[in-house]
Amino acid sequence: MEISTTASTTPVDDARLAEILANPGFGQHFTDHMFTVEWTPDAGWHAARIEPYGPLTLDPATSVLHYAQEIFEGMKAYRHEDGSIWSFRPEENAGRMVRSSHRLALPVLEVPDFIQAVDELVKIDQRWVPDAAGEKSLYLRPFMFGSEAFLGVRPSQHVTFMVIASPAGAYFKGGIKPVSLWLTEEYTRAGRGGMGAAKTGGNYASSLVAQQEATAHGCDQVVFLDGQEGRYVEELGGMNMYFVYDDGHIVTPATGTILEGITRSSIIELAGKLGHQVEERKFSIDEWRDGVTSGRITEIFACGTAAVVTPVGSLKWAGGEVPGASEGGEVTTQVRQALVDIQYGRAEDTFGWMHRIV
């Protein structure tokens, strides 16, 4: 793409930026610029530009506001000890956005264009990438939405793709400790033939009421079962799950209706290299309960771009509770450390996952 650049005339000053990067939180502060490119059937993708970060002006009839034709990605840029900046498997995020585009009837932004858009925004806002201390990073949010102003149930004929960025600290404020889970037996996240495998805002919107239910019962996160039989574990509101057995093998749910997480697929490869056989298969809630009770399941952890790898503690539901670990187990800790060491350049990237931006 040919990208025009208009630099911000009011960038955040160095002193304020230092304050932000010292304690960035998650998704609270945004960089000085944003990337935008537009699509129409006649012109294709055009008007690619980087410009100062700021509000959007949308017509009240903009289609995304009425028909939720929207997809997004989540990824990070990491600063290594030598000052260089890298992203983690951006081609996988780009490929997943292609698949999401097909499911939501949106135009495809080709993989090289996706990576170029992300790279160019990071380059112009590279001072916003924190040092690695405390596992800080620059969270990147590419997203695409139907931006045509009309009312009618059909694919939008004007589409906008954007990238914004936000410095990020640890996702869970309390640090790396087991999260408690609430099993919702009323709500499901996705059904067969639905949008479960697409990264679209509607999936997350549908999880919020169940998350409220979890919070009301004193739990950190909610876990969903499949929508067809209500027996099989799918995922949390925004994370994939892994179950470690006493013989060292690991099971991760695969039902065809869960998001194909980039961190999830990376852990499958990484765990294999670390000597753990990983099974992708249906995993029932009864197997979870019985496995923890019998001691066959020794560790449980969840993973995602924002949280990386997080140990799982107790599981609660309306009729009872299965207690969990009070700290991360050996395998959880091993997998997590191996992954973040690659991301931050502390270990050799034998998989070829890291992509240098600066």
From TrEMBL:
InterPro entries assigned to the protein according to its UniProt record, in alphabetical order: Aminotrans_IV, Aminotrans_IV_CS, Aminotransferase-like, B_amino_transII, BCAT-like_C, BCAT-like_N, BCAT_family
Cofactor: pyridoxal 5'-phosphate
Entries under Gene3D superfamilies matching the protein: 3.30.470.10, D-amino Acid Aminotransferase, subunit A, domain 2 (3.20.10.10)
Catalytic activity: L-isoleucine + 2-oxoglutarate = (S)-3-methyl-2-oxopentanoate + L-glutamate; L-leucine + 2-oxoglutarate = 4-methyl-2-oxopentanoate + L-glutamate; L-valine + 2-oxoglutarate = 3-methyl-2-oxobutanoate + L-glutamate
One annotated GO molecular function: branched-chain-amino-acid transaminase activity
Pathway given in the UniProt record: Amino-acid biosynthesis; L-isoleucine biosynthesis; L-isoleucine from 2-oxobutanoate: step 4/4; Amino-acid biosynthesis; L-valine biosynthesis; L-valine from pyruvate: step 4/4; Amino-acid biosynthesis; L-leucine biosynthesis; L-leucine from 3-methyl-2-oxobutanoate: step 4/4
SUPFAM superfamilies for the chain: D-aminoacid aminotransferase-like PLP-dependent enzymes (SSF56752)
Keyword annotations of the record: Amino-acid biosynthesis, Aminotransferase, Branched-chain amino acid biosynthesis, Pyridoxal phosphate, Transferase
Pfam family, one: Aminotran_4
Enzyme nomenclature, EC number: 2.6.1.42
Source domain of life: Bacteria
Family: Belongs to the class-IV pyridoxal-phosphate-dependent aminotransferase family.
UniProt protein name: Branched-chain-amino-acid aminotransferase
Organism: Nocardioides caricicola
